[in-house]
Amino acid sequence: MNPIESLARARWLRCRAAFLVLTATVLALVNSGRAQSNADGYIYGRVAPPPTEAALVATNLGTGLQREVRPDAAGNFRFSALPVGSYTVTLRQTGRPDQTLEQVIVNVGTGSFVRFVPGSGAEAGKVVLEKLTVQGSPISPIDPSSTESATVFRAETIAQLPVERNLSAVAQLAPGTVRGATVFGNLISFGGASVAENAYFVNGFNITSFRDGLGFATVPFEFYDNFQVKTGGYSAEFGRSTGGVQNNTTRRGGNAWESGVSAYWSPAQGGRDNWSLDGNVHVGGPLVKNKLFVYGLYNEQRSYADNQTSASYSRTTNRNPFWGGKLDWNLSDRHSLEFTAFSDKAKTAIESFNYDAPTRTILGSRGVNDQLRGGKAYIVHYTGVFSDAFTLSVLAGQGDRRNTDRGAGDAYPFIIDSRSGFALLGRATTSLIGTNIDRRRAYRLDGEYLLGAHRFRFGLDREDNNVYNLRQYSGGVFWRYFVTSKANQALPNGTVIPTAGTQYAQKGFQSNGGNFRTINDAVYAEDSWRLMDGRLLLNLGLRSEGFDNRNVNGQTFVKIKNQVGPRVGAVFDPNKDGRSKFFANYGRYYLPLAAFTNAVLAGNFLLYQEYYGLNGLTSDSLPILGPQLGSRVVFIDGTVKDPRTIVDHNLRPMYQDEFILGYQHALGGRWTAGVRGIYRNLLVSQEDEYIDETLNDYAKAQGISGFHAAGNDYGVLTNPGRPMTITVDFGDGKGPRDVSFTPAQLKYPRAQRYYLAAEFFFERVFDGKWFLQGSYTLSHSYGNAEGWVRSDDGSGSVLSTAFDHVGMMDGARGDLPNDHRHKFKLFGTYAFARDFQTGASLYAASGTPISPFGYHPTDAFANTYGAASHYVGGILQPRGSGGRTPWTVSLALNLRYQPKWAGPRTTFGVDVYNALNIRHVTEVNQTAEQAPGVPNTSYGTPSSGQPLRSYRLSAEVKF
Asked: What mean pLDDT comes out for the span 264-276?
């Protein structure tokens, strides 16, 4: 057991004991009870005229759970914290027959609005039912209680559409979302934010990677029941995101036993030996009818791909076994206990080969590199309703995540030969190796209290996260070989090589290890206040967050407390019938410092480069070195630094403000349409700035002799464009002292990211025959900071290359990488015959900006990063000045066959992705210079494009 596992296990046992004591205390107080949480939904509505003696009963059709509430004096009622599923709602009045509304769908995080209204004609004098939800709707209907920009998809609906079976594919269906750069994987950008700024939840538990924000636990599609995609305006219970939120729930057992098997096969396409196979087995049902239910799923995904570029060849084999289970215990109709567990441990084996690029000949194997990902998660969730007015929810969970690379060549240095093109030499199979384990322990409490026209919600949550990080270059060292292209060529360390054609070697060394802890906590309160006889609803919320990041010695190096973010919204329902609403929302959203920052800035991280003359190679491709060329360039010196010397004393968290204004209307019985305008402004960002020039100027002005920062030596975590205070020892015998600098002295601009959008969306709900949903978004994302990652150069993990040097920010303001100005989305299904249904999904988006990168003509510090400035050939070419990539247009189609002879629970299907086989370029090489003044002939060449037309065959049988 490694150190983090020992420490985490002890803490987890203590926290689990505390949680069980809390749960037992709550249960001891209960005579009846269920509570509102982000994993539930609710039913609410109105009885008109208000009855004097009445009760309403909601019954879950799957589990038999029943809840009873009484309407208030105005006829309003609410069933809080209902598990996702289908319900009946019954009005019971003394002396009158019961009236029951069938099939009210409750989706995660949203409300279903129901009205009992006076009858007319033959029903005059009676109270009749009116339902504004429709069974099978792909999204929630109009919800007059919500100001959020959220779209809910049921798993049954997504299964009918030709979309990939993952969370990113589901998120891309929502208005305004776009797929991010491929270098960060299959991730989505929400509202102009970078792909590392989103939050992902399963049954109320956060499954986002807190290491760098890039990714989440890989749960197969079959395990999910509901997907809620929040693109903006989310309420005070959600935080730690400046992008979007995906709030999802899993399947659960019911009173009827059900089992099934399914398989999905994607055969090889385009003459390449690429295929994938996905199989599932599930079972669910009652252990005790109406009381105790179980659901379990086993999924295995296998795939194979050959990966060939102009310079390399490899073969990738994936084996991803997943198991997941859920246990639901209805202690009573008002109290329940849930337990969720799953494992998404996965292994990817990448075999690389020696490759002759000119002849495209595959030579001998270089060995196999294993990528170990995923882990296990356990979630315990209690919910209870103590009265019609008071509900409570308590959750505790733990999740592990591996991010480890290992290979047969780990004992050998990683070698790149750049003397003529690009070639991998030696026996190493990966550049960086290490063992990385992340562990999250999360606890939250959410409550709700109804008092007249007010609905008070409150809560607190805490995440205690640990990173175990051990990372170094394969073989302990990295080599890269170069040849000078002209006389008097300067190396990144400032050394000038006078002769063209001189060969030299770059040596890199990197080592970092240890345990790092981050603690994020928050409290929130919100009042939903009905005014104007229920026509106007005000949501008045506050969320206060705190962040504590600690170094390898357990000492705090960044601690920020009491960051208050208002969440204010208003909904106006002009006719008080739930068929239309005007809505507005303002929110401030904070993002915690990712744990990877601890490992880089607050660990014993050693990173340096050296340069040598190259006199030849050994039989193992190792360098035969000549004299060292210039001095060592130390990027990070391996010492655990005093936090005061590397962190701005005035550091503020990253946060943005968001404003939304919109209108939504129901057209007839099945159509809805809406429009909303969105404005986002990133007010403060966090970056690491090198301030060597500022320190040198200060020392000179103060008459301090002998002090000189080397140019890539003094990095500070700060807020660009704001005043800075740090502790510095200038070596003058006076010891460390605090010094402050103005933005003008630091010379860095303020981090800016703006997003403006107009979204138009509509839906035609399913009627058993067809449904259709679509959106068009006109947006503009611009500024000088993409966010936690940089798509244009692939740097990320919070500490991107942005703001590293003043010269790199020249010309940095412009259209940002996630600026796809136009986005069209259209999808739906149609049952055109008794046994057949077809579906389609159309996605079209304008291209991304292209920014040429080259060497800065005057900033030697910036040039240590190579071609990373917005100068090319000495001429400033601002961000986005290289044009744009083409439009991306993709049409997916499917056909589903449910033969009556095989029963209604048997389905065969075929999906066709990129049916038109459009192969537009999505990303290009943006490096315009390979050396100062030397054009890069690969500039503008495609680096990523739309995938070839592909197919997926499926079969599913349920018993």
From this structure: 83
